[in-house]
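Table S2 (text version). Query chain:
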Amino acid sequence: MRYDLVIFDNDGVLVDSEPLANAVLAAYLTELGYPTSYEDSVRDYMGGSVHRIHDTIRERHGAELPGEFDEELLVRTLAAFERELRPVAGVAEVLGALRDGGVAYCVASSSRHARIRFGHRTTGLDRWFDDGRVFSAEDVGRGKPAPDLFLHAASVMQAAPERCVVVEDSPLGVQAALAAGMDVYGFTAMTPAARLAGATRLFSDMGELGTLLKS
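Corresponding structure-token output:
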């Protein structure tokens, strides 16, 4: 293993949440008077924090989202997760191999802590991630594509950025990892490879990741 720390994005990498979360977001924004398709949501918001949604609506429409937007979006998203969320196929085997090999790992996500932990409990991935391995955009001043979150995770986990690899499935996440001076493996199960330009490696099946990490 040539890395001291493997940093996982959460949504779409550990849990198969992107289709659910983007469907909820698109429906809610449309309900509020900002017509948004599922494809629009994926293109504009996938991988970003909730602040990105506020900023985009403000820039495009000159309007502010309701004060209760963040909490209502979380409630609706968690309800969808409770009904349908599943872990990404093969990720438990990857985590087990890292643990058995003594390789440090963590999750660094644009999502809020409450959403990350709920998703892990719902899918059974909480056994792999104690609180010391979970980092959120809530912990830093700027979310992806800024490098702050990944640099914060590496600092807490006591790993040099150049000895870290990030596993990401969003363009914003790839940009953030590269800005942090880290290698990044782009997961193309949902995102076209062309949108993850700049990634160190690309892979489409989580079963491939273990082999990539050893190479």
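Notes on Table S2: The domain at 5-17+85-214 is CATH 3.40.50.1000 (Rossmann fold). The mean pLDDT is 95.
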